[in-house]
Design brief:
Layout: E1 5-7, H1 9-21, E2 27-33, E3 53-58, E4 61-64, E5 71-78, E6 85-94, E7 99-110, E8 121-128, E9 138-139, H2 148-153, E10 155-158, E11 162-167, E12 178-181, E13 188-194, E14 203-207, E15 215-219, E16 225-226, E17 239-242, E18 252-255
Parallel strand pairs: 10-12, 11-13, 12-14, 13-15
Antiparallel strand pairs: 1-7, 2-3, 2-6, 4-5, 4-9, 5-8, 6-7, 14-18, 15-17, 16-18
C-alpha cells in the first residue's frame, strides 16, 4: 500500500493565491484520524476534513528539507497522555482552520497510560512545493523535539577541567544545545546558569564516559532543572549536583 501526503484542492488554491499576492500559507495544526477503521484509506485532494478526526494539536516544526529544497517537512507528535484510538489519516490545517494537506500512514494504535503502555508518537509529513517561499516556517519551542541529526550537529563536547555554561534566553532556543560530558581524562566541574524562560527548556547535559572520575555541576540559585531521581531542582541558593557515569542513573541534567 502506498503512503503519501498531498495538498488538498483548497491547499493548492491557497498556495497559488499566496504566490500571486505575496502572502503566506501558515500551517499551524496537525490532526489525526482513524478513517472510520478503513486500513486501505487513501488521501483525496477533494477532502475538506478528515474522515473521522480523533485528535488535533499545534505542529512542532515547519521547515524546508536540508537536502531536498522543494520539500517542506512538517513534524508533530501525540503526547503519551493522549490516545485510546487508531491513527490511519493525518491532516494539516492552516491558520484559517482549513485542511490544506492530507496523508495516510500505516495503521497504528495510540495507547494511553491506563492501558499499561504508552509513549509519545512522532510524525513527519513531507509536502512537495515548487515555491517554499510562500510557506511560513516555524518552530513551536514549547513542544519541539530536536531530531538526532540536529542534536548531533549542535552538540558541544566538554573535556576541560572547568567550564562555565551560560544559557541566555535571547540566544538559545529549545533543542539548540546538548552538552556531552566526557570525564575520562579527569574530573570536571561545571557552573550552570539558565534563564527562566521557555527558550531554555531543552538544554540537556549528559555524561558519556564510564570512568570513576567526578563531574560536579553547580546549579545557580533559581535555575529549574531535573534528573532521574529529582523531578525538580529549585533552590534559593547555589547547589552542586553530581553527574554519575553513563551506566548509572542521574547521568544527565536538563534545564526545564
Amino acid at each position: 500500500m502506498e503512503f503519501k501526503t498531498i495538498w488538498t484542492l483548497l491547499g493548492l488554491a491557497k498556495r497559488a493565491n499566496a504566490e500571486v499576492l505575496g502572502s503566506l500559507v501558515e500551517i499551524t495544526h496537525m490532526a489525526f484520524g482513524d478513517a472510520d477503521g478503513d486500513d486501505a484509506f487513501l488521501p483525496d485532494q477533494a477532502m475538506e476534513a478528515l474522515v473521522n478526526e480523533v485528535h488535533r494539536q499545534a505542529v512542532d516544526f515547519v521547515q524546508i528539507d536540508e537536502e531536498q529544497p522543494q520539500w517542506v517537512n512538517v513534524e508533530g507528535h501525540i503526547l503519551a497522555a493522549d490516545g485510546g484510538w487508531w491513527v490511519r489519516e493525518i491532516g494539516l490545517f492552516d491558520a484559517d482552520g482549513d485542511l490544506v494537506a492530507v496523508g495516510n500512514c500505516a495503521p497504528r494504535y495510540k495507547p494511553v497510560l491506563e492501558e499499561g503502555e504508552s509513549g509519545d508518537q512522532y510524525f513527519r509529513l513531507v509536502l512537495l512545493t515548487s515555491n517554499t517561499a510562500v510557506i511560513t516556517l516555524k518552530t513551536n519551542t514549547a513542544l519541539a523535539v530536536a531530531s538526532r541529526k540536529y542534536v548531533d550537529d549542535n552538540t558541544v563536547a566538554c573535556r576541560s577541567s572547568h567550564m562555565r555554561v551560560v544559557l541566555e534566553s535571547q540566544a538559545v532556543l529549545a533543542g539548540d544545545r546538548a552538552l556531552s560530558i566526557d570525564a575520562s581524562a579527569g574530573d570536571i566541574d561545571l557552573t550552570l546558569f539558565a534563564a527562566n524562560s521557555v527558550s531554555a527548556r531543552a538544554i540537556l547535559l549528559h555524561r558519556e564516559d564510564d570512568t570513576a572520575n567526578t563531574v560536579n555541576v553547580l546549579v545557580v540559585a533559581g535555575t529549574v532543572c531535573r534528573m532521574d531521581d529529582f523531578p525538580e531542582i529549585l533552590t534559593g541558593q547555589d547547589e552542586t549536583v553530581s553527574l554519575f557515569p553513563r551506566a548509572a542513573t542521574n547521568n544527565w541534567i536538563k534545564v526545564i
